[in-house]
Amino acid sequence: MTEQVPRWASEVFWKKTAIWVTGGSFVLLVILTFDSMKQISAGGPRVPAHSVINKDISYRLDKTKQRYQPTIGGEAPLFGKVLSEEEAEKLVDHGKKTVQAKNCMNCHTLLGNGAYYAPDLTKAWLDQSWGAKASREELMVNFLLDPEKNARTFGSNRKMPNLDITQPEAEAIVAFLKWMSSIDTNGFPHNFKAIGEEE
Amino acid sequence: MTLQAYQEKAAVCWTGCKQRYGVFMANPNLSGGQKLAVHYFTVAMVLFMAQLLFGLLAGLQFIFPRFLYEILDFNVNRMVHINAMVVWMLYGFLGSVYWFLEDESGVPIVGLKWGQLAFWVLTGAVTIVVLVYLLIQIGSGTDTSLWLINEGREYIEAPRWADIGIVVVMLTFFYNVAATFAKGKWSGIAGVLTLDLVALAGLYLAGMFYVTNISVDQYWWWWVIHLWVEATWEVLVGCIMAWSLMKLLGVRRKVVQTWLYIEVALMFGSGILGLGHHYFWIGTPEYWFTIGGFFSALEPIPLVAMVVHSIYDAGAHRFKNSNHPALAWIIAHAFGNFLGAGVWGFMHTLPQINLYTHGTQWSASHGHLAFFGAYATINIAFFYLAAQQARGNVWMGGELTNGWRWKTAAVLLNLGVMGMTVALLIAGYEQSFIERAVEGSTWAGYFAAQNHPWFMQAMIWRMVFGLMTAVGGGLLFWDLLEIGKGEQRPAAVIENDAVTQ
Questions:
Q1: Residue B487 three-state SS
Q2: What is the domain extent for residue A19?
Q3: What is the pLDDT of residue A4?
Q4: Which three-class secondary structure state does DSSP give residue B347?
Q5: Is residue B354 one of the residues assigned to a domain?
Q6: A130 plus A109 within the same structural domain
Q7: CB–CB of B439/B455 below 8 Å?
Q8: What's the confidence (pLDDT) of residue A145?
Q9: What global pTM score does this model have?
Q10: CA–CA dist B344, B354 (Å, integer)
């Protein structure tokens, strides 16, 4: 008696299925990637231009969507200096490079990705623990320059180590954090009460 | 002791090593490809030990934050911990493929010398990268730091020069595989493997450039991480598993290959667009909620298929096999892959829950069980196949001399990882509720969760099970060095399905 294998259970059928499914999925991913790239380029609908660091940024609940979203307000230049788009991009770029070179991501998370030994940096610029908007920039820079002396442990005994961050690097990191806080992250983190938004 | 005495001791040690290496290279029981595989497996085991050591150091820092402060900070320990893991798994995969390449193609490996050279180049590069991680650690915010010290992107921290080296080595590996199959016989496994390696090497390129825009950065970063770990690595493991089921249990080729194609269809069908579950919160458009949520929810299906397949085959052959430790680890793989990658991933993959769990110890819990269950287990199975063959294809069935060792190692490793996973899951639940839901994700909320007794208890339990895992790892290393030595009985002969029928 010969072996009766239904077509849908045969090796050839599944080989063809594997090829078509893989190819189809990949083509779809490429199409979606083109669209996503358009939407997340700096200055696009979801990721503001770097010069947003000249503005006041906050994070509020959108009652229609029931989701928190960044809000861009009036003039609030970083370190009191209005920057052109090119100057702002250069500063943010230096901040991002410093964040990478200092290996921040292996203690912190950025946009929720990274390690879990230290707080998420997505909305670090907006965190209420900086006290008041007026003193925030100075506090952040001082903390980055000497995290041991200006430790913010919240009773945990976990201290950020001294990473030999220079003054220009510290300012650039603050610029990067301010810019990152303006990205529309679809409501992540949820229920976050930004500085200046206290009830 | 004087300097001269040290030099003399070192010279004696070096001569001894060279002699032992000469004996190994003359081993008549191993083919050229298998000798190269043993090279890869040896470094993989060393890196596995490094992973365990640096994992313990990082885990201790959660309990004693001043431990090694500003000497080996958490970020350094954690980076070495996860990088050692990624690299030992890759070494295990490369070794496994070299192990069966000649058997599967029916011809000696084409360009073996290039493969050997690539091994030494890669190992030299890995050594330098780790030394730089440990001794230099960080740099200033310049391109030079990213090229020479550390790229600062989780999992792919290796500096850019090393990235280029990795691609060159992967291309050499691809050449060995493709050219050998081209010269010998092509099979379903050969076809899937070759195409998968193209994707695996190609995808790494997506992680080799710098951009200012962090949303764009993380978009491409996930192409490497997700499409490696949740797609191409899984398919590579599917190929390795297919070959080992034929080898260990004598399953018919037609059966394993049909299953392999089903798994490829399901794995790539769910995994490629399942990438979207990493695109919920990084600035990417809202449609990724639907696409990522739907396809990633399907990702456990191929893993269920793998469990059904392997357990069915093992049962159909009444568990008769030629290597008990290897079969035990293959079974651990089938369940571990399903539980760790499938169930633990599914539990927090939908955006409605991921909003609260993303970036918490939940992810660490999933990561520990998934990497161990999906990849560490199958590599360990191959280490046992290699140990058996290297010692003259000896008996590795029941009543093994010192058989307690592999069993105890397996129990300690599996229980240890499972215990760490559950401890981290409890920490993740607590963090999701207290930091995220109650406190609103502020820094104060983060620390409120970290200081909570539930979190601290979980960290202590994680440490206890981490130590158990480390003891199991040490025992495994010892066992691999000793198992089969002095064994006189030949390996059990397993009848092939085709023969039985």
A1: coil
A2: 9-40
A3: 76
A4: helix
A5: yes
A6: yes
A7: no
A8: 98
A9: 0.95
A10: 12
Distance CA(B121)–CA(B123), nearest Å, equals 6
- Does the predicted interface ipTM exceed a cut of 0.90? yes
Domains identified in chain A, total number: 2
For chain B, helix (H) and strand (E) counts, in that order, are 21, 0
Please tell me whether residues B290 and B378 are part of one structural domain: no
Task: Give pLDDT < 50 ranges for chain B.
Answer: 498-501
Question: Among B429, B431, B411, which Cα is nearest to B419's?
Answer: B411
SS3 of A119-177: the string is CCCCCHHHCHHHCCHHHHHHHHHHHHHCCCCCCCCCCCCCCCCCCCCCHHHHHHHHHHH
Question: What percent of chain A has a predicted confidence (pLDDT) above 70?
Answer: 98
CA B276/CA B270 separation, integer angstroms: 10
Q: Where are the beta strands (DSSP E) in B123-199?
A: none
- In angstroms, the separation between the Cα of residue A69 and the nearest Cα of chain B is 11
User: Distance (Å, rounded) from C-alpha B83 to C-alpha B81?
Assistant: 6
pLDDT of A62 strictly over 50:
yes
CB B338 within 8 A of CB B304: yes
Q: Are strands A113-114 and A55-62 parallel, antiparallel or unpaired?
A: unpaired
B285 vs A: CB within 8 A: yes
Residues 126-165 of A with CB under 8 A from B: 127-129, 152-159, 161-164
Inter-chain CB proximity B444 and A154 less than 8 Å: yes
Determine what percent of chain A falls in helix, strand and coil, rounding each to the nearest 5. 45, 10, 40
> Is the N-terminal amide bond of B285 cis, ω within 30° of 0?
no
Which residues lie across from A75 on neighbouring strands?
A55
Residues 211-270 of B with CB under 8 A from A: 212-219, 221, 254, 257-258, 261-262, 264-265, 268-269
- Report if residue B153 sits inside a domain: yes
Model confidence pLDDT, tens digit, residues A73-121: 999 999 999 999 999 999 999 999 999 999 999 999 999 999 999 999 9
Give the CA distances from residue B229 to residues A39, A90, B333, B341, in Å, rounded to whole numbers and listed in that order: 26, 34, 15, 10
Asked whether residue B307 falls in the same domain as residue B433, the answer is no
Identify which of B355, B493, B495, B501 has the alpha carbon closest to the alpha carbon of residue B433.
B355
Measured CA to CA, the distance from residue B428 to residue B131 in angstroms comes to 33
| Same structural domain, B310 and B442 | no
- For residue B239, give both structure tokens: 């190929």
Domain-embedded: residue A45: no
Return d(Cα B5, Cα A183) in angstroms, integer: 63
| pLDDT at B498 (0 to 100) | 44
Shared-domain flag, residues A96 and A32 = no
The encoded tokens of residue A3 equal 């072996």
Structure-token pair, residue B116 = 């050997």
Residues 55-74, chain A, touching B (beta carbon < 8 A): none
CA distance B100 to B15: 32
Helix B324-336, helix B233-249: angle, nearest 10: 140
**Closest chain B residue to A177, measured at CA:** B214
Comparing CA positions, the residue from B215, B152, B212 lying closest to residue A92 is B212
Phi, psi of A57 (to 5 degrees): -120, 140
Residues spanned by the domain of B57? 31-186
